Amino acid sequence: MWSVIKGRWTSPGLELRMNVKNYVRFEFSSMPENVSFARSCVGAFAAQLDCTLEDIEEIKLVVSEAVSNSIIHGYNGSTDGKIEVMASIFDNGSLEIIVKDFGRGIENVEQAMEPTYSSDSSRMGLGFTFMRSFMDEMDVISEPGQGTSVRMLRFFPSQNHQAMA
Amino acid sequence: MWSVIKGRWTSPGLELRMNVKNYVRFEFSSMPENVSFARSCVGAFAAQLDCTLEDIEEIKLVVSEAVSNSIIHGYNGSTDGKIEVMASIFDNGSLEIIVKDFGRGIENVEQAMEPTYSSDSSRMGLGFTFMRSFMDEMDVISEPGQGTSVRMLRFFPSQNHQAMA
Amino acid sequence: MNADFKQVRDTLVVRISGELDMLVADQLRQEIDRRLDNTSISTLILNLEKVSFIDSSGLGVIIGRYKKVSAQQGRMYIVGACPPVEKILHFSGINKLVPLYRSEKDVVSN
Amino acid sequence: MSSTHSYQDNDELLIRAQQGDEEARELIYSANVGLIYMVLERFRGTSYDHEDLFQVGSIGLLKAIDKFDFSFQVRFSTYAVPMIIGEIKKFLRDDGMVKVQRSYKELYGKIRWAQEKLRGDLGREPNVSEIAACLEMDKEEIVLAMEACQAPAYIQDVIPGEEKDQGSLLDRLASEENTVRILEQMALREALSKLDHREQEVILRRFFKDETQALIAQDLGVSQVQISRIEKAALQKLKSLLGDQIIG
Ligand SMILES: Nc1ncnc2c1ncn2[C@@H]1O[C@H](COP(=O)(O)OP(=O)(O)OP(=O)(O)O)[C@@H](O)[C@H]1O
Ligand SMILES: Nc1ncnc2c1ncn2[C@@H]1O[C@H](COP(=O)(O)OP(=O)(O)OP(=O)(O)O)[C@@H](O)[C@H]1O
Ligand SMILES: [Mg+2]
Ligand SMILES: [Mg+2]
Questions:
Q1: Domains (ranges, CATH) in chain C?
Q2: Residue ranges with CB less than 5 Å from ion ligand 4
Q3: Sheet holding B20-29: strands in order across?
Q4: Which of D151, D174, D186 sits opposite C92 (nearest CB)?
Q5: In chain A, what are the domain boundaries?
Q6: Is A69 a catalytic residue?
Q7: What is the pLDDT, as a whole number, of residue C64?
Q8: What is the pLDDT at residue D154?
C-alpha cells in the first residue's frame, strides 16, 4: 500500500533518494494518549540520522501536528480509528514521514493548508503551517470520506556528505 | 494475523483481561539500529501504564532481548528480515508484548529457553531467562523455517486497583 | 556508543558511553581485544558511568573480556555503573566475577 | 471561513506603521501579539525557554509589520504567522544546539530529583505519571530523557552502595559457583563444537544425559568398544582444549 502512495508522490527530485536505508511503520488507535507516543517514537527513529537534538524536537513537533489532526479532524475525536505512521531514512540522509488516517478526509486541501485557516473556530489553524515550516517538502493527499495522508520530507545533509560535496 | 496468535495463546486466566484499552503495532527491518528504537518505543508506550521508571527499564530490557534474538538468531544477522512488535494495554492494567519474526525458527524451544543455553558459543544464553524473569508470563511459538513469536505479559496493578482490592 | 581508551603502563581503562546492546557489542569487543592482544595488560577497567542501558549482548562482551583477561592472569573491574545497569550486572551474577566499584579512584585505592 | 480571531487586521494602522509612525507600529504589534502566543503554544512541554521564544517571535512579528505588502492579497495574520515561525526556527537552528543539550542534561537531573522527592513524599517508588505531573512533562519524554544517562549526578545522589541482591534469576544463577559454571559451560560448548559429529554425540549422551555406552552403541550401530574408544579420544581432545581445570 505504501509503495502505491510513494509512486504517486514520486517527483523528479525524489528519485535520486529513493534508496530506503531503514524504515519503520506503525499503527495505533486514534486515542489522544497516542499523540505523544507517536512523536516520541518518530523522534527515537530520527535519532539514527546525523542530526541535532533540536532537529529531533522539530520532527516531533510536526508528527504531533499531523497525528493530532488525524484524531481531531479525521476521526472527530472518536478513539477507535486507525492511524498509520511510516518513517523512512534514505541513503542520502533524508527522512520521510507519512501520517495516514482513514477518516473523514479534507474537502479543500489548499484552503486547509492556509496559515490560520481552521474548520474549528476554537482552533488556531497552525498545524499545517508548522509542518510546512519545519520540513523541506510536504504533500497532502486526501479524499473526502476515505481519509488523509500527509507526507513530509526533510533533508539532513550528513557531516560526511557535506565534506564530500 | 495477530488475532489468530492471540487465539492460540488464550488461556483461562487471559480471558479475564482480554479488553484491549490501547495498542500499538509496528514493523521494521532487522537492522541492529532498530533494537534501540524498538525498546524506546515500547518503553514510551508502557509509560501510559501505572508503572515506575524501573518497570520501564525492565520492559525495555525484555524487548531488547527478544528483538536482538530475532536479528541475531532468526535472521542470522541479515538486515532485510521483517520484525513485528505488538504491544497492548488491557483494561486491568496488564501489558502484552509480542515480538515476531519470519526467520529460521527454533528446533527445540524448551532447550532454547534453558538458562545459559545458547546455540552460539560466544553468547551467554541469558536472553530468554531475562524475559522470563522480568515478565509474569512468557510463551514462545516457533516453527523451524517459518519464524518465531515471543509473547510476554506483565501485570501492573494500578494504585487504584490496589486500593480497591 | 562511544569508547575512549586510556592505557597507563599495564592498565587499560575503557570509558564507554551510550547503550551497550547488540548494535555496538561487536565493535566494542574488537576494539578491546585489539588492545588486549597487542599490548601486555594486567588490569582492565571498564568505566560504565555513561552507559545508560545494557542487555545480554553487552554482558556477553564483558564476560568474554573477563575470560580473556583471566586467562592471561590479569584482573578486571567495572566502575561507575548506574542503577539500571548495576541491577543487570547483579542479576546476571557478573558482579561476583568482576568487582564493581564506584569510580576509577576507588579501584586504585583498593 | 468559520475561523474567528481575537486579533485584528488594521490596514490603516499598518500603512501608518510602515511610514514610520511608531505609535501605529506599537498598536499593530499589541493587536497581533496574540499570534506569537498562538505559535508559542506549540512549544509547550518542549525543552525550549519560553521567554527566549517570545523575544524571537516578537522579532518575527515586527518584521512582518515592516514587510507586509497589500499586493499579497492575504490577511496580515496569514503573512505574519509563517514569519514568526520562521524566525523561531532560525533561532532554534542557530542557537539551539548547546542549549538543548544542556537542557536535556538538566531534564535528566530534574527527573532524578522529582523521583527522589516523590519517593520521600509517597513512601514508595513514584510511577512515571506522577513524575510527569510533578515536572509538567510528557510521560514519554520522561522515558526517553532517561536514556541520556548523566552519570556523575547519578552516582553521588543515587547509588547508596548497598547490595541489591534481589530477584529470582540471581537466586538461581548468581552464586559464584553457578557463574563459574556458566563460564565453564560456555567454554565447554566452544570446545565441543570443535569435536566431530560422532564425538559430540557420544560426549553429550554419556555425560549430559547419563546414557550407557551400550545404549549409544546400539543406536549408532557400532560396538561398545568403539564407543569407548570414541569417548576416550573425545575427552582427550576436550582436555587439551579446555585445560585441566574444567574436566579434572
Ligand atoms: N487528517 C485530517 N482529516 C480531516 N481534516 C483535516 C485533517 N488534517 C487537517 N484537516 C483540516 O485542515 C484544517 C487545518 O489544519 P491545521 O492543522 O492547519 O489547523 P487546525 O488543526 O484546525 O488547528 P491547530 O492545528 O492550530 O490546532 C483543519 O481545521 C481541518 O479542517
Ligand atoms: N528469534 C529466534 N529465532 C531463532 N532462534 C532463536 C530465536 N530466539 C532465540 N533463539 C535460540 O534460542 C537460544 C537462546 O536464546 P537466548 O536469548 O536465551 O540466548 P542467546 O541469544 O543465545 O544469548 P544472549 O541472549 O545471552 O546473548 C539462542 O541461542 C537461539 O539458538
Ligand atoms: Mg491541526
Ligand atoms: Mg538472546
A1: 2-109 (3.30.750.24)
A2: B 69, 127
A3: A137-143, A147-155, A94-101, A82-90, A20-29, B20-29, B82-90, B94-101, B147-155, B137-143
A4: D174
A5: 21-155
A6: yes
A7: 92
A8: 39
Contacts of B157-162 with CB under 8 Å at 24 or more apart are B157/B50, B157/B93, B158/B49, B158/B50, B158/B93, B159/B50, B159/D127, B160/B50, B161/B92, B161/B93
Residues B52-69 have pLDDT tens digits of 999 999 999 999 999 999
C-beta of A126 in contact with ligand 1 (< 6 A) = yes
Ligand nearest to the CA of B117: 2
The dihedrals phi and psi of A103, each to the nearest 5 degrees, come to -100, -145
**For residue D236, how far is the Cα from the chain centroid?**
50
Strand partners, A89: A22, A95
pLDDT in tens, D126-160: 989 899 888 887 888 788 777 765 544 333 333 33
Nearest neighbour of C19 by CB, restricted to B36, B71, B127:
B36
Phi (first) and psi of residue B152, to 5 degrees: -130, 145
Q: What is the pTM assigned to this prediction?
A: 0.79
Q: What is the pLDDT of residues A88-113, one digit of tens each?
A: 999 888 999 999 999 999 999 999 99
- CA gap C67, D185 in Å, rounded: 12
Tell me the CATH number for domain A21-155: 3.30.565.10
Pairing of strands C43-54, C11-20: parallel
Beta strands C11-20 and C2-8, pairing class: antiparallel
DSSP D125: P
pLDDT at D155: 35
Taking the centre of ligand 2 as the mean of its atom positions, its distance from the CA of residue B75, in whole angstroms, is: 11
Nearest one of A9, A48, A14, A41 to A25, comparing CA atoms:
A41
Neighbours of chain B (3+ CB pairs under 8 A): A, C, D
Report the nearest-CA residue for atom 2 of ligand 2: B74
With H, G, I as helix, E, B as strand and everything else as coil, classify residue D8: coil
Active site residue B123: yes
A76 tagged catalytic: no
| DSSP secondary structure of A130-146 | HHHHHSSEEEEEEETTT
pLDDT for D228-242, tens place per residue? 888 888 888 877 776
Cβ-contact A18, B15 below 8 angstroms: no
pLDDT attached to residue D184? 64
A1's grid cell: 500500500
What mean pLDDT is predicted for residues D1-25? Answer: 72
Q: Which residues of A touch D (CB under 8 A)?
A: 36-37, 39-40, 43-44, 52-54, 57-58, 60-61, 65, 114-121, 123-126, 129-130, 132-134
The Cα of D24 is separated from the nearest Cα of chain A by a number of Å equal to 24
DSSP run (H or E) holding D53: helix D50-67
Distance, in Å, from the CA atom of C88 to the CA atom of C77, rounded to the nearest integer, reads 16
User: What torsion do the CA atoms of A36, A37, A43, A45 make, to the nearest 10 degrees?
Assistant: -170
Q: Read off the C-alpha cell for D30.
A: 499589541
pLDDT tens, residue by residue, A12-70: 344 444 689 999 999 999 999 999 899 989 988 888 887 777 788 889 999 999 999 99
ipTM of the shown complex: 0.76
